[in-house]
């Protein structure tokens, strides 16, 4: 069952490496597909050139022009899986990750977040924090990250440069906000925000980074005037850009949005009226969205980023992901650093399963998510949420090779294997127990980005 490119494609590209062993991934139809003794070839553009079976080695080596001695064989407890997609992470908040989780959202923003984000005017500080967050997330297996930066254009551009330098696929957002009554110096006027959003987009696109794109980023409805929201909707539309923001995270926020936008039917309608809900929109949280609002998400093609660590840590709420999926709304996972205290998507996988089980405890009729379904959310689901599923998310011929080489039995790692387990059990163990010690190599668009080669050493 060899799948490969048609002959016109193959004549233009050459295969630069081939891996043989177990590959696991998701498809829209199958939450978990295991391919044992698979052969996967990657071409010089970093794209998957073919996927075949070990027994097809001879034929594939002739068609694609490689010798069998060039095939890298995975070890017994190793497998390849698609790279993890973090659909919502605040790069700037990495400076205080793991702390300051003792208040609800709005107080948390005023007390901790805004004062820290204001420091990113200082490019040296920005360089330090952004280098650490890109390295750490790559080390954790995040091949694609959708970042919030801060309101500072130059520091946000620096984040784009750092992601490019380390080879991470990234959507980078310069935060836009013209309302902030608590930390008065951490906001822009509507005009400044619009002008700087334009400058950010233009300068980032001019860099022509192959894997880094700008994302239009109104912080959330409470931080933006209607005027600014509309301007940002227009900018996104005119430039066909991604959009990210927050929605319906906490009850106090939802009440205030109702008061501030009395002419809107719902929180979702606030964004919809300003053309901010499109097929390239990802909204974080959505814990309190009504079924009608979820319908509007589906109709517009907008997606949700589920951030369970943050939802638990700030006592915000519990998103019913099953209901989101039943409404056919695209959904991925987000760490939401630093409302979430972990920068690892593996943690988001575990907290997603916990959140689903909490809902089952409350209502035994609730259809609990399986680990296979959550694996799909962390990979293919994330790529769909970011509208990148034509390029990444699973192992399909023609997609970029974004992948993790996982060794479940890595020496010094956190997993003890007692009996000989099949690939499905190995994946389950990795998702529940594994960490970066099990992630032996990370590839983005065919380039090996972990282990690092920047001379700064491992982390
Ligand atoms: O979890 C969150 N983190 C933030 O920084 C933020 N801003 C608005 N709403 C938010 N929610
Ligand atoms: Zn957030």
Explain what you see:
The protein has helices at 7-12, 57-64, 105-117, 123-139, 153-166, 190-207, 226-239, 251-260, 267-273, 291-300, 308-313, 321-326, 345-362, 371-385, 423-433; strands at residues 3-4, 15-25, 33-43, 48-53, 71-73, 78-82, 84-90, 142-148, 169-173, 175-176, 212-218, 242-247, 281-285, 303-306, 331-333, 403-407, 439-444, 447-450. It is α/β, with parallel strands linked by helices and 459 residues long. Strands 7, 8, 9, 10, 11, 12, 13, 14 and 15 form a 9-stranded parallel sheet that branches. Strands 1-4-3-2-5 form a 5-stranded mixed sheet, sandwiched between helices. Helix 4 runs parallel beside helix 5 (153-166). It binds xanthine (XAN) and zinc ion. Residues 88, 90, 246, 284, 336, 339 line the site of zinc ion. It comes from Austrofundulus limnaeus (Annual killifish). Homodimer. It catalyses: guanine + H2O + H(+) = xanthine + NH4(+). Belongs to the metallo-dependent hydrolases superfamily. ATZ/TRZ family.
Q: Which blocks of ≥5 consecutive residues have pLDDT under 50? A: 5-10
Write down how many β-strands occur, each being a DSSP E stretch of 2 or more residues.
18
CATH superfamily of the largest domain: Metal-dependent hydrolases
Cα-based radius of gyration, to the nearest Å:
22 Å
Pathway: Purine metabolism; guanine degradation; xanthine from guanine: step 1/1
Cofactor: Zn(2+)
Enzyme class: hydrolase
Domain Amidohydrolase-related: 80-449
